[in-house]
Amino acid sequence: EEVATVLADEIRGKNVLITGTSLNGxxxxxxxxxxxxxxxxxxxxxxxxxxxxxxxAIKNDILTANIRPLILDLSSLSAPLRxxxxxxxxxxxHPTQILxxxxxxxxxxxxxxxxxxxxxxxxxxxxxxxxxxxxxPKILAAHTEHYTPRVVFVSSVGHSMTAxxxxxxxxxxxxxxxxxxxxxxxSKAANVLSTIELSKRSKGKINGYSLHxx
Length: 214
Prior knowledge:
Layout: H1 2-6, H2 8-11, E1 15-19, H3 26-34, E2 40-45, H4 48-61, E3 67-71, H5 78-81, H6 84-90, E4 98-101, H7 119-140, E5 150-154, H8 167-171, H9 180-202, E6 207-211
Parallel strand pairs: 1-2, 1-4, 2-3, 4-5, 5-6
Helix pairs in contact: 7-9
InterPro entries: NAD(P)-bd_dom_sf, SDR_fam
Family: Belongs to the short-chain dehydrogenases/reductases (SDR) family.
Keywords: Oxidoreductase
């Protein structure tokens, strides 16, 4: 809340999309404080009931909040592919100035999604990466002489606790070699690496950030 107050002028009038905004989580609190100043806050989650509860709680706290909830399961790689038309409607054809990737999964057992990818990597990075790629034209459209749009990944200090991304295991997940914590850390390392590369490739038109929430 203190950070949002200090950065109020940076947020005011902006369209912000935040993933993983279930009630009382980090994403929810981010959406709540940003909603005080933003033009529109698009919240996403895979559970409609929890998403609606979060929307109601924010609007109850901030009467002027403009919240648009959208169902999005980032563990399903087909979900972001269906999203762009909904986003265009939700933000009334205005650019997306700020995209915050907060959604994440932390599981203790080996599990594959329908796309045959390990769940933590799919939810924590590949799904968000695909969403970013699909929304890049809308994000780039927000760039002006005086404002550079932001893409933020909520990563973890765990990114530094892995030897790197095992691309062989990523392509061919193996339950016999699965270490849950390392899978999580690899997904967070992927967040950091992609943020750096996004900033490079956008050549100053998008600022990429990654952070440890603790």
